[in-house]
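Page 42, continued from yesterday. The earlier attempt failed because a stray header line got pasted into the input along with the sequence. Redoing it now with the clean sequence only.
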Amino acid sequence: MIEIQPVTPREAQFLIGMSEKDINRAIDRGEVEKISEPEEGMPVHGVEKGRRRVRKIGLSELLFLALEKQMHADLTPMGRRKLYQAFKKMKQKPEP
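This time it went through. Structure tokens are written below.
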């Protein structure tokens, strides 16, 4: 499986054609896991080490959201969870 660096919801919007608002909602509802990374060069007072945390999602999340967008009406909530878990497992399998 190919590897990409985690992307922000705005970058994901461009890649999969889903609104940034819908991507953030999916993260907030726990449909996909987020990756929280410090934003480089952006000091913010009151945050650990003076940096803001930036929401990002990985390849498994991108693939799931792109497919879920196309098949939302055809998938039950349980089906969506199983599909996402399948994408997460694919990422964990080592390539031969």
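Notes: Strands lie at 35-43, 51-56.
Reminder to self: strip header lines before submitting.
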